[in-house]
Automatic annotation (TrEMBL):
Pfam families according to UniProt: Methyltransf_23 (PF13489)
Organism: Methylobacillus rhizosphaerae
GO BP terms, alphabetized: methylation
EC number per UniProt: 2.1.1.222, 2.1.1.64
GO molecular function: 2-polyprenyl-6-hydroxyphenol methylase activity; 3-demethylubiquinol 3-O-methyltransferase activity; polyprenyldihydroxybenzoate methyltransferase activity
Gene label: ubiG
The entry's keywords: Methyltransferase, S-adenosyl-L-methionine, Transferase, Ubiquinone, Ubiquinone biosynthesis
Family: Belongs to the methyltransferase superfamily. UbiG/COQ3 family.
Origin: domain of life: Bacteria
Lineage of producing organism: Bacteria, Pseudomonadati, Pseudomonadota, Betaproteobacteria, Nitrosomonadales
Protein name: Ubiquinone biosynthesis O-methyltransferase
CDD domains: AdoMet_MTases (cd02440)
Length: 240
């Protein structure tokens, strides 16, 4: 792993980093606070692989945390680099790959700094469940666009900002169903698809697909659908 990041104005919320640092040791516990991430991972992995054909591709996972998505993309045959600013989460990711045998390069570096270091180096970039946790999400989008090769795909997933999303993602998930720890999300940081698509367009990325992700509290199952009113994935491609 790289040495501690030296950038002065990091695009990061220290309270958010601390929040996830305290839970870092639970990343791979499928019955912990990270259970929802484990349950949605097959869905997002399948969507990414279907549209980007991961095998043989050089892939960057931005905000990789403990490596759940990074490892699964590696298992599909991709050459994966995972980056995060959470040192504890990255250590957990590194330890877990010793057990799993997955081959992922993990780095403690901001996406903005990596974009300066190795622009247009990746065939695919993923940034999942991260944008709603940073002060300047548009800057993350620009950096992701800078890192992907022309013609390459960038996938973002986040939460829509509307009353239904507040009801389902905050009240329902955190207070009623206890799917997530209370305080996981701040409604003001949720992002409308039109806003994310606009940031992507300004960064040279064309939106080519969107998918919603729904949860059925009766069956306790997640599924991809066309309802983007709460959780959604935005698929983009960089102009050639």
């Amino acid at each position: 792993m790289a040495n501690p990041v030296e950038s002065v104005n990091l695009n990061v919320d220290q309270a958010e980093l601390q929040k996830f640092a305290e839970l870092a040791h639970k990343w791979w516990d499928k019955n912990s606070e990270f259970k929802p991430l484990h349950e949605i991972n097959p869905l997002r992995l399948g969507y990414i692989d279907e549209h980007a054909s991961l095998a043989g591709k050089r892939v960057l996972d931005v905000g990789c945390g403990g490596g759940i998505l990074s490892e699964s993309m590696s298992e599909r045959g991709a050459e994966v680099t995972g980056i995060d600013l959470g040192e504890k989460a990255l250590k957990v990711a590194q330890l877990h790959q010793y057990e799993s045998g997955a081959k992922v390069e993990y780095r403690l570096i901001s996406v903005e700094d990596l974009a300066k270091e190795v622009p247009e180096s990746f065939d695919v970039v993923t940034c999942m469940e991260m944008l709603e946790h940073v002060p300047d999400p548009a800057a993350i989008v620009r950096a992701c666009a800078a890192l992907v090769k022309p013609g390459g795909k960038v996938f973002f997933s986040t939460l829509n900002r509307n009353p239904k999303a507040y009801l389902f993602a905050v009240v329902g998930a955190e207070y009623v169903l206890n799917l997530l720890p209370r305080g996981t999300h701040e409604y003001e940081k949720f992002i409308k698809p039109s806003e994310l698509a606009s940031w992507a367009r300004q960064a040279g990325l064309e939106t080519v697909g969107t998918k919603g992700m729904g949860y059925n509290p009766l069956t306790k199952n997640y599924k991809l659908n066309d309802d983007v009113s709460v959780n959604y994935i935005l698929q983009t491609v960089k102009s050639v």
